[in-house]
Amino acid sequence: MWLVFKKELLELLRDRKTLFFMIALPLLLFPLIFGAFGFFASKAVKEAETKVLKYAIVGGEYAKGLSDSLAAASDKFELVEVGADADFKQLIRDESIDFALKVPSNYDQPLLEGGQATLVLVLNDAGLNMVQSRVKELVDSQVENKRRQAFDALALNDFQQTGLLKPVVIEKEDVADSRENWGEKIGGFLPYILFLLCLQGAMYPATDMGAGEKERGTLETLLISPTERHKLVLGKFLTIAFAGVTCALMTILSMAVWGIVLSQGMAIKVVGEFMSAISALDFVLMFLMLAPIAAIFAALLLSLSIYARSFKEAQSYMGSLIMVAILPIVMAMMPGVDLKGGWAWVPITNVALAIKELIKGTMDYVSLFAIFGSTVMIAGALIAFCVYWFNQEKVLFR
Questions:
Q1: Contact 181/274 with Cβ under 8 angstroms?
Q2: CB atoms within 10 A of CB 53
Q3: Whether 168 contacts 332, CB under 8 Å
Q4: 361: phi > 0 → left, psi -120 to 50 → alpha, else beta; which?
Q5: Which of 39, 107, 281, 313 fits 63 for a cystine, CB–CB 3.0-4.6 Å?
Q6: What single DSSP character describes residue 104?
Q7: Is the keyword Acetylation in the record (predicted)?
Q8: How do strand 99-102 and strand 120-123 relate by DSSP bridges?
Q9: How far is the C-alpha of 24 from the C-alpha of 32, rounded, in Å?
Q10: What is this structure's pTM?
Q11: 88-145 pLDDT, tens per residue?
């Protein structure tokens, strides 16, 4: 078995495509993708914030202060003269204007006399244009002035004004510590990344060791060797599981290193405090629970690869396996789903929930025995099926 594992691993490491998927892709490509996404996203937001917005206004005479504020901000807004009966929706679709304002007649009246004023903002809010937020900045100053006028008319002091604006304030006292809060936010997302990367990293070597050997005609040579069938399967299985775990760990390591390198000092401090709160035992337990997950994926992938007639057919089978893996992970991120009752026995979901609890620091370590034991049993059953599958001549030579 170990001889087969060594042989498959050496062939794996000689393959440039495998090295790319296992090492280069996690270390370079994923950070570049996330970095490029962040760069273009920030660039798009900056452009939306600095773009000069063309606008039309109806009833501007009722909002002298707002009209003057828009005209004064000539580097942000540009007035387009249109008739009161113009089709604003069509003008916006034609990109003649970015938004239109319909001002009610009571807009400039004192709050105690005119009551609530409804300012209609016509815009296309389907894209990232930030029109509403930029207009709201100007309107908020007008609203604050109207409030001050009303308070002065009522002769209210600052204490009374504050009470009138916010009659009741809820002050929150959170019993959860910083680690638990952060763990709740990112604890469900980390298994999602780890499991999918583990699956992705194992796909290519699994395809090559089953369907690939069929296409190359080397499977027959391997079968007539004196090595027993189950040892051949276990050697291939260990190589695939190793590739999956390596890809997942390399990606997480890469993201952590690049995050520290590119983050500002305060972000490094927050990340450092959070990471230091997680004990070495929790990290070891997370890695140990990742091992049976990798075993489950490796056994499934190898079974599909052995069954497939060609490399292409194996890839089509494995593509559908991604959805099978995603659903249990997504269930672990749903509200109300935790390590209580039957959820502790649901495959893949229970490990995702356990990793989340370990990150939060709220793990009941006794339940790990049931989670780890059930996952190992499922992985063992799938490995046994894989050995059985490999012993079927009708499967090997379809």
A1: no
A2: 19
A3: no
A4: left
A5: 107
A6: -
A7: no
A8: antiparallel
A9: 11
A10: 0.65
A11: 889 998 889 999 999 999 888 888 888 888 999 999 887 767 888 888 888 888 888 8
**Tokens at 278, concatenated:** 């997680």
* Interatomic CA distance for residues 91 and 80, integer angstroms: 11
Q: Say how far apart CA 302 and CA 239 lie, in whole Å.
A: 11
Give the Cα separation of 296 and 325 in Å (integer).
10
* Nearest to 79, CA basis, from 51, 98, 59, 104: 98
| Rounded Cα–Cα distance for residues 245 and 201 (Å) | 8
Q: Show the domains of the chain with their CATH numbers.
A: 2-30+178-396 (no CATH), 52-165 (3.40.190)
**What does 238-297 look like in DSSP terms, one character per residue?**
HHHHHHHHHHHHHHHHHHHHHHHHHS-HHHHHHHHHHHHHS-HHHHHHHHHHHHHHHHHH
For 231, 242, 297, 318, 357, the CA distances from 7, given in Å and listed in that order, are 12, 13, 21, 24, 39
Rg of the chain, C-alpha, whole Å: 31
In sequence order, which residues have a C-beta less than 8 Å from that of residue 261 and are 6 or more positions away?
none
Q: How many CB atoms lie within 10 A of CB 273?
A: 12
pLDDT confidence of 331, banded at 50, 70, 90? confident
CA 310 from centroid of its chain's CA atoms: 33
Q: Which of 36-45, 67-76, 201-210, 357-366 comes out lowest in average pLDDT?
A: 36-45
3-state DSSP assignment of residue 175: coil
Q: How far is CA 204 from CA 12, 29, 62, 299, in A?
A: 10, 17, 68, 14
- pLDDT tens, residue by residue, 219-277: 777 777 777 878 888 888 888 888 888 877 776 666 666 655 555 444 555 555 666 66
> Rounded to an integer, what distance in angstroms lies between the CA atom of residue 88 and that of residue 86?
6
CB of 339 within 8 A of CB of 367?
yes
**pLDDT beyond 60 at 362:** yes
